[in-house]
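Interim report, section 4.2 (structural modelling).
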Amino acid sequence: MKNRTLFTLIIILFSSCETVVQVDLIDRSNNLVVESYLEFSDETNSGTARVLLSLSSPFYDEINPTYVSNATVTINDTYTLIEHPDSLGYYVSESPIPYLGEEEFSLDIIADIEGKEGHWNAKDNFTTVPPIDSIYSIYLPASPPFAEEGYYCKIIVKDKAFEQNFYHLNVNVNDSLSFSLNGGTKRSSILRDDLFDGKEIDIEVNNDPLKVGNTLNVVLSSISEEVYLYYFNLYTLLTETSGIGAAPPFPLTSNLVSLNDNFDNALGSFQVRSTTTREITIEE
Amino acid sequence: MKKILLLLLCISSGLVAQNDFTISGFVKEKSSAEDLIGANIVCDEPRTGLTTNAYGFYSLTLPEGNYTLTYSFIGYQDQVIEIALSKSVRLNVDLEPYAEELMEVILESESTQQVRSIEMSVNRLETKAVRQLAAVGGEVDIIKSLQLLPGVTSVGEGANGFNVRGGAADENLVLLDEMTLYNASHLFGFFSVFNADAIKDMKLYKGGIPAEYGSRVSSVLDVRQKEGNANYTETSGGIGLISSRLLVEGPLWDKSSFMVAGRRSYGDLFLALSGDSTINSNKLYFYDLNTKLNFWLGAKDRIFISSYMGRDVFKFGDLFASSWGNETVNLRWLHLFSDRVVSNLSYNFNDYDYLISILPAGLQFNWESKIRNHQFKYDVSYFQSNKHHFKGGLSVNKYNFEPGIIEPANSNSAITDFKMRNKYAYENALYLQDEWKVTDRILIKAGVRWSSFYRMGTDTILVYEDDAPLNYNATVGLYENGTVVDSLFYGPNDLVKGYNGLEPRLSIRYQLDESNSIKASYQKINQYLQLITNASSPTPLDIWAPSGPFFKPLIGQQFALGYFHTSQNQMWEFTSEVYYKKLDNVIDYIDAPDLEFNNHLENEILYGEGRAYGLELMLEKKLGKLTGWMAYTFARTETLIKGFGAEEPGINNGLWYPNPQDKTHDISIVAFYKFSNKWSFSSNFVFATGIPTNYPVAKYQFEGLTVPHYNRSRNQNRLEDYHRLDFAATYKPRGNDSREWVFSIYNAYNRKNASSLYFKESDDNPGQTEAVQLSIFPIIPSVSYNFKF
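Predicted structure of the assembly:
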């Protein structure tokens, strides 16, 4: 947090200059990349699973991932996901997955990549999310260089006391992801409750100001510590390993373990979330 | 201490002939009565010599007879004194600067006694020369100027701290009048905390570090403040683009004097001119206040009171504010027991703190961190004869570390109080050394330092299964926290963990002839404090961590060998040194360490070994209208951190990897040209191999983000090579130092030097990824005005 703030300040303070350069890179692509979520809504007590399988690519290639089709994707060895007919590599649960009190869920993937069979497995823990007690908007003046004038939405949530909780916050404005980071990269937000254990928090959820008529949708998820660390490391890698005297970048490890010697562990993550959702339309 | 003194006196009594007498005193600058540090005193026959110590004191013992003594100091007229020695005499000598029109020599980068002195691996720069070098925004910077000398580098423009012979920035002991500075930079490293106006002398030991110094394995930067003009009141200062400075110095009574110097940047004053309240409420400035009082209490006692206070202050909007700074004070009592025995008793108080206020709505908090230490030091110098100069002393340091206190910033904040555990420690040292002139050709300085470090309670230390604070999970390829099986509570003043060690030091000079000498040195130093950061350049907001049960002291050993040559007419000087450093208990961090709010840093650290080696060459022209130097350094600095067992990769798969400050080749060419009494010019060119970095091996998409994928190797790639040319011109309208304009151009050909390289999706061409190089300083012209009256 400190370094990220410092880096931002340094960039603002000094007339630094960015130049696109060409450097020769070694190619170690074609790793399986997994975006997988098992989400339980607080309203239905049942979950849906969605899994996107793709491959890593050479760094300078155009961003156009190769998706992995015809894979076998299973939750808890029980629920087999089907590949969406209109989206190659995108697998979803056929019907709601009931929550039966499980503490841990597993994901199993078998896929054929360039003629070799790969087999991966991941596990993640279930945690429960507290409800969003309220959502409201306020009009705030500009606070340069960090915030522009406009409407900002806040949510009030009561953290569960005497246990360590980790949260993931996804905010969409008019159906598009709203958080922004360092002038462009869109991302969600994560929180850990070490500094507000058991307290009611009243926090702003949008970085960019809203206008009258905008609809803001907040999805608050409870996530495991491992998933929190995955996001934390992902954002650290993207924001704190560049700049003056920055820390060295690192390989982002996932919880998707390769079960045979044909492939390395997959990239990405398998996440079990419990979620709560609120929506607000900005009024004058 | 009395016993040590008695022991020294007893040893000496058997060594001194009864008809030997001592000439002792202080060498001073005539106009200001400032002590001259490192002034030379040479006796013609028998040929012998010495230099004044940090207080301008010297003591020379010779048999009864007639002697010719020459007192000299760079930039000053020699003074030759004939003396008929039949009893011990006190001889204070005042040296007068060369008249400006004769003053062609403007440069002194090393001791004038380079060939004769026992010292090697020492860099010294006159502040007068530093002032004439081009600097960013015209802001004279001692530390940046030192980087023009061999063996001293940084990881890039704007990087905090400096690196000596491949060492990390926290391996340098930075002293200002014996006060330790825990952060020597302003504005995150763009400028140093040293106000050149207030500085009298600075000396950087890169190797052959005398036994009186310890605590840091790579170097000691010993900076001394002016005592103040004891003859008349004088005011000097300057106005620059970044800051302005003012210094007042003058006599108090008898020979006592004072010095007060201040400097403040004024970025925030320009912001205040804005009519926009969202801009004029921001703050951005730094300041320094240096003071020194110098009292003479009779002929044998002097009291010095020095202090330094400096701070950076930032406030941006209502969302972020920060402040950090050093506050230090030093009290010293210099006592002449006799014409050969000098003691120095000092007390230092150092306080470094920072405060960050992060103010997102609902979660506003303040984060405060401090390190404080009290130090008592006692040193005794005994100039036994012109063959032996003994020195001994002891020091006691008490540290209080308050790494982090987090509090809600207001009543609306949901943040709860959080306090990282305070840490307490004592660091003590005892040393003894002798500079022994074995023959006219052979000079030896041998010393030993015994250091100890005690981590004290109150503290709670976790006990891990198999004593392993972290374990490697080969399945997911990740280091994980060890299993806690117990915790041990230590009450106030309970010993948590103790370390101690002997630190031998040895320097040898063999003088081949009047113009040539060979020197060798060895040093071993234990370092008990380290800065917790996995960045290559530390920030002012990193915390210092003391050695403890899991945090072993860093142990550094260095061997150096050098050849030194000066031409017959003293115009040219050539130095060459090779060195090899070996480091034990080097720490590095696991991938993506969690270093904030962390009471258990042992979960993030791996241990290994380090090495650094290099060749440093320097050719210097010291006399004439054109002076300057060319320096070349070949250097490598690497770390090896193996894992335990075959599956554990350690760092870089258990292979040697370059440290972030590794620069294979480093060249500096510096020239000063005195065109006339009114105009002088300087220019410098620097070239350095690009610092290590890491390139990705692939990329992938995750939640719409383009993520570069790296393998486990570390620092195997490099940024582009660095090079830069600067010019500066100094104009003195009256031909003297009373008024001075300094015009400079930094980075004259506007080279876009790489400060870092990162990999991301293109802003201009979404769908494409690119490597982006960040450069900091383009061409920067500047002007500053200096005055004295």
